[in-house]
User: Which sequence fits this backbone?
């Protein structure tokens, strides 16, 4: 394992120290229990937006804390859901009197920990599940779809709605609308190594790739032979496009995400093909996002997320956001 | 029964089996179950004092696991120990019968939290047979013997998860590919119940 | 070689197509010769800021094109200097009548290609060399120090000065001041693979790291055994701090850069130690930047850049910038 | 001398030796010299027509290399071919003497652009001995023989870069560690001059 770390068990706490040192003006970091909050919060009368999940997906979620997006992020151990005490303290820290929205990626661990926290919270809490990953069968016989790329979009749009002063129920409804209208699928060229585990989560041969990977290095839908980028994009887009279903004339936000170890230059090669295919299908890409936003440590790979847009979602997407990882309009 | 001794024994065996649990979890999950459990039990072992009333100690263990394990295992084992604590409350000298009732409560708490049924390839597949074995043995056996029967049943239950298709938790994403692997959570449950039986044995 | 590409020879041109498709409102992409320009340029009466270099360092330089930073970027083949015809066409494309600044990283190839372009340009061109890499011996017997992390800072500050309407000579003087007051050093945990080469540029054993690496996978200053992050930071900071020399009371910008394959969480662990050490030395970090800004494809590693600040540099650093990779104040 | 034939032969040998040149460059540089040269000569071979006047053809080659090779080699080989073109201008049937003068001009152009001296471990270490050998052979030999002498000298010069410490280009960053490796640019120069001699031979 080759990593820029000191103690595998201290990765999250030392990174939090670095974040606290780097952004004292905009972020307030609590170490025990661990959370990253807006320095200027809680904002009186504003719905608080809380998200959290395992670490190792940076900039998600801590990089999205700031005006117009999250009020607070709870980082768990690497790839492990945070715990209810963090969520409880964080909920309290951002409670501006208008209730708090919990944005929860649909993983059993996250769901149960957030549930426990919500049960214990004295503040009004509404939870929204993100479950956009079409790689996973959505049936009553599974834990349901995982939350992946759409999480970034849900956080941005719910954050903008809260910033605009909308009440908790509306903010939650918007967050659900984003999740319902978003579909994602990802793939990996390489595995990644959780620091406190020390060995790669899975092994891929030099000529193999994993299609339908989650963001925790979980095994994906299928393992196939390496292919050119265009074919990979086609493979990812097909289930996304047919699942919603997206149809000609739809306005979409196209989000090409890197899993962490893939150079930006390759993500633009991916975006090129996404734009081609959507163009052929008559979909209009009105907004896009290209970069490493929800990652799996140093994993090489990409995920594609499409969100069906309407005027309100576009307006909330465009609204000012001021975080370390997403910033515009400010 | 000294809960602190059990937790220390549990922490030790989890530490020892950490890599195996990680590997089992890597096969059908995300490879962190050993790390998660080790982290939690290390913290629990530090926080639980020998000699405290069993119910208090078990509650502390449950709360500690809840706030240190994370993932799926955190709330589930948290519920488990808080459930055990409930069953042992106000009992000064718990016998096999009391423990059987407590394990019933704990298993119910895990199922309430996780909604898993036997056969879903989760820790419930170790817990349910353990619970039944403990109840079955409680009438005619010593506490130690009854706990050993529970531990053995848990072990068999864990092994019996191999051919199952996962329907809960991260492993369920794999569908058919989850078949042929032993469930890490069921495995850690068996280890912990084995540590419990061994601790009772020493006393 | 596992990459999200189609044809190793078409990596740059296909990525350019992706960039053109993703940012049509803000960027204008020319394919032959290749450059990425501000869509709203040339800006009448403003000094044009041009930079360029081999591809594979993204977001450098194309990600820094936009208001307040570069007017145009010339991407070469991966890790290979662009050619004079690109620079000539790009110079012409951004000539707003106030001359054009060429920001050139000090590599023999870049220097010679830019020189040739400047000789042929009809516009007034001033070139500024960036050579901040303390890993390299600066003597008349070498090609001099390489340009690394400071390039990002030079581009930002020169861009802000040009945006403020300052004349070419002043903009160039500011760019030189940034270079003269900045020092960098980098290291690699892993190598990287140039697509059209197909094999890793160098080999590192599982327990080795390369100290003093450049941004092209050139061999570094020394190869040593892997160490904890804090020790690595100390190793990088020592030559940086003693070279300028920085001294107690200095105000600095601290830039922790990822080489591409290092997760953000690790960069914050690096930043944590940087802040500690500078604090102990009495240096005041007034500004910072943490992220992947000048990369070497998928290489894992980091570089640290320190820039000695003064009021004018702080003000130019803070000035609005609106590019895909750096954005604030807009 | 058919420049187009030379360039095609050069493109072929560079393509063939691409990986070796990359590897030589990986040892003391950034591993792209073979790729750079192959890209440039492929483009040049496509753009140069057989039968064009030598000076025009050489200038086209130089301009093409300048705009397709990039890196250090681009401007240097660009200058080299533009320098050769200068030496062959207005000469309809160039003999060994004319070529010797042209190679002098081309070598000077490379040195003007790159400021390298013999011994700096660059392509100049192949060019300078080739230039001198061609001048030396020009008086008494056929063009083909003289060019072969130049190619042989370039080859020796390239091999003699192994023990040198690099003082120019990317390899200079390595300091002492550059010793013990053959310079890629000197190697490609030797290959190209060998292709030149072989082309002259065929005619
Ligand atoms: N719904 C559930 N009910 C009971 N046990 C579950 C459930 N979901 C997961 N588990 C158990 O949790 C184990 C995984 O725990 P762990 O790896 O620590 O968490 P995570 O899956 O979040 O990484 C599984 O092996 C399984 O036994
Ligand atoms: N200043 C110089 N003068 C002459 N030749 C040089 C000079 N700098 C570099 N070279 C030659 O260029 C070769 C490297 O070319 P190449 O790898 O294509 O470019 P880059 O170093 O930019 O990657 C070296 O092997 C050397 O022969
Ligand atoms: Mg986990
Ligand atoms: Mg797990
Ligand atoms: Mg190069
Ligand atoms: Mg090279």
Assistant:
């Amino acid at each position: 394992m080759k990593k820029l770390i000191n103690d595998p068990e201290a990765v999250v706490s030392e990174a939090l120290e670095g974040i606290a040192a780097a952004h004292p003006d905009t972020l307030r970091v609590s170490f025990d229990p661990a959370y990253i909050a807006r320095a200027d919060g809680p904002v009186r009368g504003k719905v608080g937006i809380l998200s959290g999940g395992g670490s190792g997906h940076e900039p998600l979620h801590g990089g999205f804390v700031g005006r117009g997006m999250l009020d607070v992020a709870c980082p768990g151990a690497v790839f492990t859901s945070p715990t209810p005490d963090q969520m409880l303290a964080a909920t309290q820290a951002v409670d501006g009197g208008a209730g708090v929205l919990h944005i929860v990626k649909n993983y059993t661990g996250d769901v149960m920990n957030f549930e426990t926290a919500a049960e214990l919270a004295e503040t009004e809490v509404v939870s929204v599940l993100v479950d956009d990953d079409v790689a996973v069968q959505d049936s009553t016989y599974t834990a349901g779809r995982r939350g992946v790329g759409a999480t970034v979009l849900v956080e941005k749009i719910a954050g903008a709605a809260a910033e605009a002063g909308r009440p908790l129920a509306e903010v939650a409804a918007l967050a659900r609308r984003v999740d319902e209208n978003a579909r994602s699928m990802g793939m990996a060229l390489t595995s990644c190594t959780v620091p406190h585990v020390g060995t790669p989560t899975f092994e891929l041969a030099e000529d193999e790739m994993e299609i339908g990977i989650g963001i925790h290095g979980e095994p994906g839908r299928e393992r196939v032979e390496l292919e050119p980028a265009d074919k990979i994009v086609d493979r990812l887009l097909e289930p996304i496009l047919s699942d919603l279903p997206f149809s000609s004339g739809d306005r979409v936000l196209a989000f090409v995400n890197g899993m962490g170890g893939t150079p930006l230059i390759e993500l633009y090669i991916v975006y090129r093909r996404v734009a081609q295919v959507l163009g052929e299908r008559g979909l209009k890409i009105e907004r896009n996002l290209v970069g490493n936003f929800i990652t799996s440590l140093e994993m090489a790979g990409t995920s594609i997320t499409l969100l069906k847009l309407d005027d309100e979602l576009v307006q909330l997407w465009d609204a000012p956001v001021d975080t370390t990882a997403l910033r515009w309009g400010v | 029964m000294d809960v602190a001794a059990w937790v220390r024994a549990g922490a030790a065996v989890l530490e020892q089996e950490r890599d195996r649990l990680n590997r089992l979890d890597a096969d059908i999950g995300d490879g962190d179950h050993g790390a998660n459990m080790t982290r939690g039990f290390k913290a629990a072992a530090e926080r639980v004092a020998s000699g405290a009333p069993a119910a208090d100690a078990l509650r502390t263990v449950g709360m500690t696991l809840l706030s240190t394990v994370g993932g799926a295992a955190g709330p589930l084992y948290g519920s488990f120990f808080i459930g055990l604590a409930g069953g042992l409350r106000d009992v000064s000298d718990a016998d096999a019968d009391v423990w059987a009732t407590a394990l019933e409560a704990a298993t119910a708490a895990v199922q309430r939290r996780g909604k898993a049924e036997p056969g879903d390839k989760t820790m419930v597949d170790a817990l349910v047979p353990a619970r039944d074995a403990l109840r079955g043995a409680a009438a005619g056996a010593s506490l130690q013997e009854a706990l050993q029967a529970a531990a053995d049943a848990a072990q068999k239950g864990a092994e019996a998860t191999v051919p199952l298709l996962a329907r809960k938790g991260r492993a369920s994403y794999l569908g058919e590919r989850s078949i042929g692997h032993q469930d890490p959570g069921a495995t850690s449950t068996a280890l912990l119940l084995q540590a419990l039986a061994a601790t009772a044995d020493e006393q």
Remarks:
- Chain A has a mean pLDDT of 95.
